[in-house]
C-alpha cells in the first residue's frame, strides 16, 4: 500500500489472490507458466486495487466451512 501501514499498526492485512485456468491449459504449458500467471496476479494487485476493494466493504461468513468465521 502507498503509503505503507504505520509501524504501530496492529492487525492483519491479507488479500487472497487467484488465477483461473483449465486443466488443458495446465497440461499444455508447464509449471513455470503457472508460476508466471500467479506472479502477474500479485504484480497487478496494486495500491488502487486494494483501495477499491476497501471501498466496497465485503463481509464473508463461513470462511473455509467455519460458520463462526467472518472476514470483513
From TrEMBL:
Gene3D superfamilies with a match to the protein in the record: Chloramphenicol acetyltransferase-like domain
Pfam families with a match to the protein in the record: Transferase
Molecular functions per Gene Ontology: transferase activity
Entry keyword set: Transferase
Superkingdom in the source lineage: Eukaryota
PANTHER family: FAMILY REGULATORY PROTEIN, PUTATIVE (AFU_ORTHOLOGUE AFUA_3G14730)-RELATED (PTHR31896), HXXXD-TYPE ACYL-TRANSFERASE FAMILY PROTEIN (PTHR31896:SF12)
Name by which UniProt lists this protein: Uncharacterized protein
Amino acid at each position: 500500500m502507498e503509503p505503507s501501514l504505520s509501524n504501530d499498526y496492529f492487525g492483519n492485512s491479507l488479500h487472497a489472490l487467484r488465477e483461473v485456468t483449465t486443466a488443458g491449459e495446465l497440461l499444455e504449458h508447464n509449471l513455470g507458466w503457472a508460476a508466471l500467471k500467479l506472479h502477474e496476479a500479485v504484480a497487478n494487485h496494486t495500491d488502487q486495487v486494494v483501495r477499491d476493494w476497501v471501498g466496497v466493504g465485503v463481509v464473508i461468513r463461513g470462511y473455509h466451512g467455519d460458520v463462526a468465521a467472518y472476514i470483513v
